[in-house]
């Protein structure tokens, strides 16, 4: 599941590059944090959207894995977000897909860009 | 650009978002804390004793001795796309609790002593999970109505259910329940059942609505 999430994360970066979100999320920013958290949210969205049947242990494992890829290099231009923020982003994407099924991917993209 | 050209679209979005219930507080709600004060993951709290990563040498461990549900007359035949005769998909969550007890973990009702979990959506049983090979849960004492049980292999599943609609294969990560094990999931959405194997041993059966 972690690998699926990482693939979705990278795909979300492609979406950013081919849409206006890349500019919106990098304007005035010192780090890549917002770009990465945006992609984390969409990873969670993808995992939640798939009609898969996850056990609680699998969700626990995904959360721990995602948390482990965070970093604390706040001033580094390559800073990708703290473990807490990265976990929160992927969880909220998952929750958005599961609980707000009336909204599609476009709404998910807009919502996360506005509230990051 | 004049101020009103920025302000009015922002106000419109704000009002629309409030109307449809999309506010920062509910889209980015803080995750709940576990009873021990630690953070949960997707609403699921790490079980005590399951916080550290298991050593490779500890694996695999045999499944604990099966325990029967407290209500002796409970049917233990797992029916694809349905669940159990007395505890099936769409039933109120209280039926699961009556049959297996268990505790709430986020969206899940977990009954590790019986090797069964339920995903609860809107107070109803949405999915059922029967465990047969776990370090932290007892093995479920039943089998499917086609005879798949803890001793069955992927070949047995194919023989009873035919070719799966989808097969997923991966290696479980260090954060997973059985790190390093080869996971194979055989999915039959047409029947509403998925079989998961770890190193060719039946790990769990997942029951959900047919599609």
Note the topology.
The complex is a heterodimer of chains A (116) and B (211).
Chain A: H1 2-17, H2 21-26, H3 33-49, H4 56-68, H5 83-99, H6 105-115
Chain B: H1 3-19, H2 24-27, E1 77-78, H3 93-100, E2 103-105, E3 108-111, E4 116-121, E5 124-131, E6 143-144, H4 154-161, E7 166-171, E8 182-188, E9 193-198, E10 201-207
Task: Count helical runs of chain A.
Answer: 6
Classify the beta-strand content of chain B into a percent band.
Answer: 15-25%
Q: How are strands sequenced across the largest beta sheet of chain B?
A: 2-3-4-5-10-9-8-7
Apparent shape of chain B: globular
**Radius of gyration of chain A, whole Å:** 13 Å
Order of helices and strands of chain A: HHHHHH
Count of folded domains of chain A: 1
Instruction: Report the helical percentage of chain A.
Output: 55-70%
Strand pairing plus helix content of chain A: what structural class? Answer: mainly alpha
Summarize the structure.
The complex is a heterodimer of chains A (116) and B (211). Chain A has helices spanning 2-17, 21-26, 33-49, 56-68, 83-99, 105-115.
């Amino acid at each position: 599941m972690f690998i699926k999430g990482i693939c979705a994360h990278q795909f979300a970066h492609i979406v950013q590059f081919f849409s206006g979100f890349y500019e919106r999320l990098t304007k005035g920013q010192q780090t890549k944090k917002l770009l990465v958290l945006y992609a984390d949210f969409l990873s969670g969205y993808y995992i939640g959207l798939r009609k898969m049947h996850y056990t609680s242990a699998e969700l626990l494992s995904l959360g721990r894995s995602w948390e482990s890829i965070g970093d604390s290099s706040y001033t580094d231009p390559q800073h990708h977000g703290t473990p807490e923020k990265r976990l929160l982003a992927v969880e909220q994407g998952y929750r958005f897909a599961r609980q707000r099924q009336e909204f599609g991917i476009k709404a998910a993209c807009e919502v996360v860009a506005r509230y990051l | 650009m004049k101020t009103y050209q920025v302000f009015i679209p922002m106000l419109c979005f704000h009002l629309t978002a409030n109307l449809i219930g999309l506010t920062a507080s509910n889209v980015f709600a803080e995750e709940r804390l576990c009873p021990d004060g630690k953070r949960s993951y997707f609403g699921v709290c790490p079980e005590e004793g399951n916080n550290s990563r298991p050593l490779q040498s500890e694996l695999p461990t045999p499944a604990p001795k099966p325990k029967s549900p407290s209500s002796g007359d409970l049917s233990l035949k797992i029916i694809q796309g349905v669940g159990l005769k007395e505890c099936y998909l769409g039933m109120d969550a209280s039926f699961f609790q009556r049959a297996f007890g268990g505790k709430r973990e986020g969206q899940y009702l977990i009954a590790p002593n019986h090797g069964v979990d339920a995903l609860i959506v809107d107070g109803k049983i949405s999915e059922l999970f029967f465990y047969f090979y776990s370090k932290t849960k007892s093995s479920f004492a039943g089998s499917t109505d086609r005879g798949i049980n803890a001793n069955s292999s992927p070949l047995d599943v194919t023989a009873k259910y035919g070719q799966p609609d989808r097969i997923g294969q991966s290696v479980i990560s260090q954060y997973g329940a059985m790190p390093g094990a080869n996971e194979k999931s055989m999915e039959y959405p047409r029947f509403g059942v998925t079989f998961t194997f770890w190193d060719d041993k039946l790990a769990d059966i997942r029951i959900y609505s047919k599609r």
